Amino acid sequence: MSCFPTGSNAEVVELVDTQVSGTCGSNPVGVRVPPSAFFSSQYEAAALQSAVNIQGADEVKKKGRVAVLLSGRGSNFEAIYQNSLKQNANFEVRAVISDKKDARGLERAREFGLEAFHVSPRKLKPKEVYERKILEILKTHDTELICLAGYMRILGETLLSEYEGRIINIHPALLPSFPGLHGQKQALDYGVKVSGCTVHFVNSGVDSGPIILQKAVEVKEDDTEETLGQRILKQEHQMFSKAVTLFFENRLQIQGRRVIILS
Ligand code: GRF
């Protein structure tokens, strides 16, 4: 199965679209507009201006639309959000959703002025009803990719089927080792010398979907769960956004269990 986001990258912001109103065709790349006095005719000037608008259109491609689901602190969400603000980012955070009303991540999202929602699994039962509500929010915000950033629930069929191949998760260990809760502690207790983090596509299992990216982190002799966790988290913050970027560059292709990163 290949997993390409729908519509992203190919679309152009409406404003630019109306500016060019169908005059495009082949346009020179890197064209510069000299003062209009240099043009032999008004028509030529208009044609070149139009070319520039098209070039501009290429540069302001619509960004990939991300929704983040979280249950707690939200440091991965913050990293994704901060990276989305960078000049060349190809994605934006459209909504943040939490199953926990008092999640710190939700509070931070509101501070950033983002659309932030608490959806209560306790009030919305069964799980299908709960996930339908989430789906409603995702749709309203034109979500193309869901990032699970410390979202402490296993996804049900409702979300999985609607967003198949478009949900990614981050885990604080080198999968398939140490899935589930407390990946850092599991690794430490087991005695591995190297642990790390993994971004993977989400399927119906626990941390068992096809792996997109992994980063190794050395376990030091005097590490505690906290010290190891901190070093892993630092890598998580970089890796998650990298995976999102690759996704919206249409460079992730799932082949069985493997995710091929296209060059
Ligand atoms: C991270 O360690 C992540 O790998 C795991 O849950 C933790 C969430 O941390 N899935 P934060 O809420 O992003 O700070």
Describe it for me?
The chain is of the alpha/beta class and 263 residues long. Helices cover 36% and strands 19% of the residues. It is built from eight helices and nine strands. The strands form two sheets. It has a seven-stranded mixed sheet, with helices on both faces. The protein has a two-stranded antiparallel ribbon with strand order 8-9. Helix 4 links the parallel strand 2 and strand 3. The longest helix is centred in the C-terminal third of the chain and has 24 residues. It is globular and about 50 Å long. The relative contact order is 0.13. The N terminus is likely disordered. The structure holds 5-O-phosphono-beta-D-ribofuranosylamine.
Summarize the SSE layout with pairings.
Layout lengths: L13 H7 L21 H18 L4 E7 L4 H10 L6 E8 L5 H8 L4 E3 L8 H14 L4 E4 L8 H6 L4 E5 L11 H8 L3 E8 L9 E8 L6 H24 L3 E4 L2 E4 L2
Parallel strand pairs: 1-2, 1-4, 2-3, 4-5
Antiparallel strand pairs: 5-6, 6-7, 8-9
Helix pairs in contact: 1-2, 3-8
The structure holds 5-O-phosphono-beta-D-ribofuranosylamine.
Features:
263 residues; alpha/beta; seven-stranded mixed beta sheet; two-stranded antiparallel ribbon; 8 helices; 9 strands; 19% strand; globular; disordered N terminus; binds 5-O-phosphono-beta-D-ribofuranosylamine
